[in-house]
Amino acid sequence: MGSRVISKPETAFFGAGCFWHVQADFDMLEGVVETTVGYMGGSSKNPTYDDYAHAGHIEVCKVVFNPKLVAYKRLLQAFWNMHDPTQGNRQGLDLGAQYRSVIFYATAEQKKQAEASLTEEQAKLKRKITTAIERAVAFWPAEDYHQKYNAKHGIRGKVC
């Protein structure tokens, strides 16, 4: 009997506005093993939904993926397509720095690919992309009621 090569999962972090729809969009991709919404980039430990924005955290989605089934480049393509990266500190009606567009890279290779993808996306757009590319720091999972929010409530598409 032959053995299958099992790839070690990798992790990526994306902020593209309200984390509910970001998680739902990534959950649809083959090769995504797990997603968790939470907070990253701020100054406090263990932030809650009531205080995360005041400490500079951003709503993000942690994406654990099998690189044999889905390339990081494909995750980046999905990221660019799920939001407007030119809106600055907002996405649609959600206003504030906690909704800004950001790619948190976990490895030097992710940084390189994220920078290349930003350059490619910018060439397609007339308005300037405001997406930041930053080194991943501590990730704090959001409260349970935020996890898989759209799926729990039968929501398709964006609600926030």
Characteristic key phrases:
two-stranded antiparallel sheet; six-stranded mixed sheet; single chain; 160 residues; Peptide Methionine Sulfoxide Reductase, Chain A; 25% strand; 4 helices; alpha+beta
Topology (elements, then pairings):
Blueprint: E1 10-16, H1 19-27, E2 32-40, E3 58-65, H2 72-81, E4 90-91, E5 94-95, E6 101-105, H3 108-124, E7 132-135, E8 139-141, H4 149-152
Parallel strand pairs: 6-7
Antiparallel strand pairs: 1-3, 1-6, 2-3, 2-8, 4-5
Give the SSE order as H and E letters: EHEEHEEEHEEH
Q: Categorize the overall geometry.
A: globular
- The CATH homologous superfamily name equals Peptide methionine sulphoxide reductase MsrA
Which runs of at least 5 residues are low in confidence (pLDDT < 50)?
none
Q: What oligomeric state do these chains adopt?
A: single chain
Secondary structural class: alpha+beta
Query: What is the mean predicted local confidence, pLDDT?
Result: 93
The CATH class, by name, is Alpha Beta
CATH topology (level 3) name: Peptide Methionine Sulfoxide Reductase, Chain A
Query: Helicity level, as a percent range?
Result: 25-40%
Distance between the termini: 50 Å
The total beta strand count reads 8
Tally the structural domains: 1
Beta-strand share of residues: 25-35%
C-alpha Rg, in Å?
Answer: 15 Å
